[in-house]
Amino acid sequence: MNMRSFSLAELSSPEIGRVAASAVLVLPVGAVEQHGAGLPTGTDALVSAEIAHRAAAPLTGVPVLVAPVLPYGSSHHHLPLPGTLSLRSRTLLAVLGDLIESAAVAGFRRIVLFNGHGGNDDLIRQAARDAVLDLPIAVGAASYWSLGGDRLAELAREAGITHVPGHAGAFEAALTLALGATLPAASSSAPSSGPVEPPREPAYGFAMEHGWIARMGGVTDPITPATREVGERLLDHLVTAFTAYLEAFARDFQR
């Protein structure tokens, strides 16, 4: 099925109506939050949107439309540091539910929430679970780093990157450079050694403590190992992984 564009925002209402029932709609989700002195606050939204568009571009057998990125996420844990605009978790869950319902009313039957922010990870899956209770649709949910597998960690290690995905560290810096973004001038004075230890998951299961992000200084590791070339290798792998995800999702939930 030929489409003039795979970007939902560039198509007219009739064009969308003609393909919605057979298409997969990708809704990228990000965040606006502090990323230390070295990265822009919109990093998560930029990365998720770019991977989604690059993954959709080569798909010919599967009609895929990419919606405009939802730039805000559940980031209240970053509020102690400047630059964070956050939705409460329950608000994000409601927003995602409304967007999925709107897409279903428009005729879409296959929808994928594609996430670029750790604080949204549980919520995108819950939104998918909730949506299919009442709507006759299939909803996928994935965070980009979860699709990269062992190979993503290997590529990072080869470049001297220790935290995948980390936060505001070398991994995200490399991806941001690969997108052609200009890092803030303050990145030259960002931590270059002695990574701050992020919270560890205890042996007995998940646990969190008040104020953990502020104690880390808002970053998990130095950005020093990041280069554009490293970022391009990471990005290529992530795009390939998400392309494979979309193909499998479309195959498993044929309409």
UniProtKB/TrEMBL annotation:
InterPro entries: Creatininase-like_sf, Creatininase/forma_Hydrolase. It comes from the Bacteria. Keywords: Hydrolase, Metal-binding, Zinc. Pfam families: Creatininase. GO terms for biological process: riboflavin biosynthetic process. One of its GO terms (molecular function) is metal ion binding. The keyword Zinc applies. The keyword Hydrolase applies. Its cofactor is Zn(2+). Belongs to the creatininase superfamily. This is Creatinine amidohydrolase.
